[in-house]
Amino acid sequence: MTTSTPKWHLPQATSDTQFSVERLRGFHAHVYFEAATEAAAEALREKTIAEYAGREVEVYRLIRTPVGPHPVGMFEIDFSQKMFADVVLWLERERGDLSVLVHVLSGDEYYDHTQGALWLGPQQSLRLSFLKKRSE
User: Is the pTM of this model over 0.85?
Assistant: First the structure.
């Protein structure tokens, strides 16, 4: 049996990232779709809204074209540390064939979308040149 190394880790505090759990502002999930999967993404979006109504989760509109580092259409879900396990496990179960990027909000966009990221489903190639590092 082969085991895979998890792609998620909470980073250690270093002088480079200045990361600490206390400073963590929460998490984003980006659910990616293309024309052929837009209906599935919209259905997941509506299901997410219903599932997390009144809780520490915000669900945003579908964005049908690439924006910033995101290479295809997507919608965003914002959630708190307290909701992390619940939201991530729910998304893994409900996402179907959609790719989802989950990342920390540490204040360093580049770090957040690379080292501070977890992929559910196939990984997308992000346009990293759009992301600012903390020192920039």
Answer: no
